[in-house]
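Q: What residues go here?
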């Protein structure tokens, strides 16, 4: 197949179980750009799979693909989507093809958990990357040499781009349009698709905070953990918690970290953040009341949200409540 020299070739790899929006979302962005600026945004999308024919997806839709064995010549954008089970054989079979095609691609894109397949192909070593918030720890395990970020909607590191979960692939595709052309075309595409060119609250995925415990606590540590949940507005310093556990501060901190997997102060800060998020989503309490209920000043709560989530409590509430 001959590809015109001025055509931007986008090859998307599909496989049974793939998340359909990881493919159709970016494809729609490229298609909109080509319609809005046909003279310069000449994107050609190819859907490739192990065999020619329908590719089943969890949504019940099937996508028609041609065989990836027939891919010849250079590729401008090679895109790898994610799925719910990246351990499945169908997903793992993408990796050799990815390794074969990546050297011929000007850039490689991993959407959602597609980043894990990039990791398996050895493409993330020494790079920054992001994935769906639920797969961040798994990505770090698969790519120990990768700097995995938890907040951004998408990350570019050289010729490798990765995105957060599902619809974030469309945000990434808009960024690719901007990189290929300019912000004005990306803005036109966003307006046409009724999307934000820049999401309110910053380009960040609002993932749940890490679990307050990563291992089962026992004895006095377990008692302290249970007590803290109902006393977030109390004195939760290491010294205070150690007294409650009838331990010295040094021994308490050591045992707490061994059982919980993180220092007491970090665990407390996360517990307060998680509680504040829940209250913002589910209650009508004011931000000052929520700050007080979680043992913080409104100023501290603001700083914590901006640092951890890239947004303010007020913006977070607007995003996650219908009122």
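A:
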């Amino acid at each position: 197949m001959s590809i015109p020299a001025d055509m931007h070739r986008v090859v998307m790899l599909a496989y049974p179980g793939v998340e359909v929006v990881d493919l159709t979302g970016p494809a729609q962005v490229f298609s909109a750009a080509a319609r809005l600026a046909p003279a310069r945004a000449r994107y050609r999308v190819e859907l490739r799979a192990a065999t020619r024919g329908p590719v089943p997806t969890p949504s019940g839709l099937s996508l028609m693909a041609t065989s990836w064995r027939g891919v010849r010549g250079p590729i401008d954008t090679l895109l790898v989507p994610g799925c719910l089970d990246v351990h499945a054989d169908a997903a793992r079979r993408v990796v050799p093809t990815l390794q074969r095609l990546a050297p011929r691609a000007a850039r490689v894109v991993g959407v959602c958990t597609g980043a894990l397949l990039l990791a398996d192909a050895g493409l993330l070593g020494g790079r920054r990357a992001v994935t769906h918030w639920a797969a961040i720890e798994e990505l770090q395990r698969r790519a120990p040499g990768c700097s995995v970020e938890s907040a951004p909607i998408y990350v570019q590191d050289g010729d490798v781009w990765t995105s957060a979960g599902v619809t974030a692939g469309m945000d990434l595709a808009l960024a690719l349009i901007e990189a290929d052309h300019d912000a004005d075309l990306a803005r036109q595409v966003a307006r046409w698709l009724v999307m934000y060119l820049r999401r309110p609250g910053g380009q960040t995925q609002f993932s749940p905070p890490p679990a307050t415990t990563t291992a089962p606590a026992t004895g006095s540590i377990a008692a302290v953990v249970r007590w803290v949940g109902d006393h977030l507005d109390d004195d939760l310093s290491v010294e205070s918690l150690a007294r409650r556990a009838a331990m010295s501060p040094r021994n308490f901190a050591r045992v707490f970290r061994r059982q919980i997997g993180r220092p007491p102060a970090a665990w407390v800060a996360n517990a307060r953040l998680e509680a504040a998020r829940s209250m913002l989503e589910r209650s009508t309490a004011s931000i000052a009341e929520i700050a007080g209920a979680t043992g913080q000043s409104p100023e501290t709560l603001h700083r914590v949200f901006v640092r951890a989530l890239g947004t303010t409590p007020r913006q977070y509430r607007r995003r996650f409540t219908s009122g």
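A: Context that may help when evaluating the design: The CA atoms of residues 287 and 298 lie 7 Å apart. The mean pLDDT is 90.
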